[in-house]
Task: structure prediction
Amino acid sequence: MKKKLSITAILTAAVMAMASCSVSEAGNSQSENNNAGGDKDTVQNTDYKYGKIDIPGKDGALCGAPIYIAYENGYFAEEGFDVNLISADIETRKIGLNNGTIPMVNGDFQFFPSIENGINVKVVDGLHEGCIKFAVRPDSDINSVDDLKGKKIGVDEIGGTPHQVASLWLENAGISADPSKGEVTFLPYSDGNLEFEALASGEIDVAALWDPLGSIHEKAGDVRIIFDLGKDPYFADRFCCFLYASSKVLEENPDEVAALLRAYRKAQEWIYENPEESVDIIINKKYASIEDKELAVDLVKSYGYPSAAEHDGTWDSHVESDVKYFVDGLAKIGYLESDPDQFAKDIYQKVDVN
Result:
């Protein structure tokens, strides 16, 4: 009998019970902050065909660059959206997607088990490649995944991307990530700096950190990196984050989803062409806590943001292939019970952005 993380079932049940709730948090809004965009006149004169929407985009991760650039350069506004950037944990995102109050979010394969359990969303695009590192203290005797049995691992939230990446890494090495098995312990920290402090004090043995925090401390010599999502053989050159669209919005207003994807793709292509300028915007607007521009540029370049030519070429097949890859991986370790081939087909929907 296949095993599944009990926490996934519990959290999914809670989400479904709350699915009728409309969740929205205060954040930046383009209609309230017209000076934010790169093209101020465009932002000010747009009629916003699709009105105001919430987009999670205030988590401080450097890899959220396409969201920040689409907002600041006015791409959301150009496509008819008055975007309100919000802070939203994984459960808030699931609820918003399920009832359509949040039309699109970014996330990795963390959503796949929830989709199997009834969350109504589809993978519609890929966002970027690796952006997570697992750090240990410089004097730690932990050198690889094989040394993690019995250890405490800090994450930003249970069910979030670092937690799910760590779970797959552990399970592929034969170490159970199921909390009931007791082979590892996950401890959530709402702030990456608190997680780093917990690592330094010995409260946890490993910190699973979003960029740029892990890279900043690695460069300072404060930590040693034992896992890099962008370089690990299992994860390298594959999307760590996809774009998920609400099935409700896809069914009721597919043009809205296509318009949102156009905004994201404009931002990805602009980042590809202008990594230094992108980092200037991110640093100046304080979207991510990093002051080392050279490091930030190197990291942004490593995320595999596509050119316009790549979008017009093999991009969609790359997205579909990576969905199948991670479905197979999760099914292999017992996190999915559905037939992998059919499930991968069911959860991916190609959207005609033209």
